[in-house]
């Protein structure tokens, strides 16, 4: 699958964006913005050696937002025909006429808009035929089966190849866009049988297919994870240190970004309301946002509104230095946009001195969490309660697997109670972080 797979060029997308903005101006909109995009890809899943699914996707769309002063209307279409674009703009304007005025609605301030593009090396198409993708998926699953006779089944191995491009533009003169890719290989083996079955998974995802782990390495590691969970048991209810494995530590950082986002803050639906300038982590915790890392999964020269992104320190010496704000949420809070319309861009938690084994040693006795279940987070109070599975640790060594437990605490206490951040960094979407050790949580079990 190559760049020639796109049906529309970047120049054509720009022309469509100009048509939308010109028509919005012609029919009386005071301001307008649009996003024109196209994406395509294929995914292949093999299970027990047989092809289970082959999926092709191809989609395109135009989203239009128009303003009548502080009244806002939005509409979208997947039809690029001129009459369809005009009808979509007119529908958005009609919606705006019946929408209440909002003093915070409107385009970003012009001074914040990106005015020059930069190539972040985000486009690496994977020219792979479906037969090759099937072969990779089979090699991945075969490696899982070869790890042990205890691997009796799988939920399949998947190879996914995706590419897309877009153009965003607004009536202030901003127009920008680029192509990007994202590919992954994943495997989910099942170990054991009957009541003692255990499942786990692993994947590798990158912009450039040359950066992916080999299918054999992914399948083998996923199998080792499933095998290590055999014989899992409960533990007695206790209060102990809890180590979040790096992929789950990224979810913990995600809890922070949600609580520090403008939408939660202006609605007073976050325990971090008014926390800017205050210490919410230990002094050794530093979190930076770096939107311009080449090839990174969340890199972008501008956010969803066209606001230029920039490197910044979000947490320094444990102190919350800034929120995650779009233009709208910034106005709601009386602040300036941080270029985070659409989410954060490569949030990096500075690693500490320990690797994973060093973190186990630092914990001594406690719980290593490798899977979280449910969505038990109250962002207003910070109360945190999740189903979990993982491993009991004694004397800095994994003793046995555990399951059917719940871990509970409060995010305010958990953040301040971070004892260590590991250097075993995992990249999961927009977060880059090592395993995180919390000094004390309640583990509810038998």
Description:
With 446 residues, this protein is α+β, with helices and mostly antiparallel strands. Helix content is 23%, strand content 36%. The chain has nine helices and 19 strands. The strands form three sheets. Strands 1, 2, 3, 4, 5, 6 and 7 form a seven-stranded antiparallel sheet that branches. Helix 1 packs across helix 2. The chain is globular, with a radius of gyration of 24 Å.
Helix count from the secondary structure assignment? 9
Shape: globular
Mean pLDDT: 96
Poorly predicted runs of 5 or more residues:
none
Briefly note the structural class of the backbone. alpha+beta
Oligomer: single chain
Q: How large is the radius of gyration?
A: 24 Å
Helix content: 10-25%
Write the layout of secondary structure elements.
Elements (H helix, E strand, L loop, with lengths): L9 H17 L4 E17 L2 E19 L2 E7 L4 H16 L32 H17 L4 E20 L4 E17 L6 E2 L2 E5 L8 H14 L9 E7 L1 H14 L2 H5 L20 E3 L22 E5 L2 E2 L6 H7 L13 E3 L6 H8 L2 E8 L9 E12 L2 E14 H6 L1 E4 L4 E3 L2 E3 L2 E9 L2
Parallel strand pairs: 8-13, 12-18
Antiparallel strand pairs: 1-2, 1-4, 2-3, 4-5, 5-6, 5-7, 8-19, 9-10, 9-12, 10-11, 13-14, 14-15, 15-19, 16-19, 17-18
């Amino acid at each position: 699958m190559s760049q020639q797979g796109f049906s529309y060029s970047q120049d054509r997308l720009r022309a469509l964006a100009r048509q939308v903005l010109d028509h919005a101006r012609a029919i009386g909109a005071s301001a307008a913005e649009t996003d024109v995009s196209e994406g395509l890809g294929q995914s292949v899943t093999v299970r027990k050696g047989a092809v289970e699914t082959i999926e092709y996707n191809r989609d395109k769309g135009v989203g239009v937002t128009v303003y009548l002063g502080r009244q806002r209307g939005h509409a979208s279409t997947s039809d690029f025909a001129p009459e369809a674009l005009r009808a979509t703009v007119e529908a958005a304007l009609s919606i705006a006429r019946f929408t209440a005025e909002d003093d915070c609605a409107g385009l970003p301030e012009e001074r914040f808009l990106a005015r020059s593009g930069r190539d972040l090396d985000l486009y690496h198409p994977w020219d792979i035929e479906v037969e090759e993708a099937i072969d990779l998926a089979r090699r991945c699953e075969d490696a899982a089966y070869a790890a042990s006779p205890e691997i009796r089944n799988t939920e399949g191995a998947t190879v996914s190849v995706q590419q897309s491009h877009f153009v965003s533009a607004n009536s202030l003169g901003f127009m920008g866009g680029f192509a990007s890719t994202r590919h992954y290989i994943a495997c989910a083996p099942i170990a054991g049988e009957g009541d003692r079955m255990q499942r786990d998974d692993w994947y590798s995802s990158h912009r450039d297919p040359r950066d992916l782990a080999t299918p054999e390495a992914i399948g083998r590691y996923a199998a080792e994870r499933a095998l290590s969970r055999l014989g899992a048991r409960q533990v007695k209810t206790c209060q102990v240190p809890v180590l979040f494995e790096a992929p789950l530590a990224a979810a913990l950082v995600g809890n922070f970004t949600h609580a520090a986002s403008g939408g939660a803050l202006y609605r007073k639906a976050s325990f971090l309301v008014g926390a800017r300038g205050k210490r919410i982590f230990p002094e050794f915790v530093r979190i930076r946002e770096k939107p311009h890392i080449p090839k990174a999964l969340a890199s972008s020269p501008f956010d969803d509104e066209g606001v230029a992104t920039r490197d910044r320190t979000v947490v320094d010496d444990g102190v919350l230095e800034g929120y995650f704000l779009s233009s709208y949420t910034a106005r709601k809070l009386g602040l300036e946009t941080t270029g985070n319309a659409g989410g954060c861009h490569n949030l990096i938690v500075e690693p500490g001195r320990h690797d994973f084994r060093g973190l186990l040693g630092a914990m001594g006795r406690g719980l290593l969490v490798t899977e979280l279940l449910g969505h038990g987070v109250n962002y207003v109070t910070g109360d945190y309660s999740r189903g979990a599975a993982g491993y009991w640790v004694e004397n800095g060594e994994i003793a046995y697997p555990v399951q059917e437990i719940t871990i509970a605490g409060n995010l305010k206490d958990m953040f301040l109670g971070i004892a260590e951040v590991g250097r075993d960094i995992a990249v999961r979407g927009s977060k880059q972080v090592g395993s995180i050790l919390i000094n004390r949580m309640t583990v509810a079990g038998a």
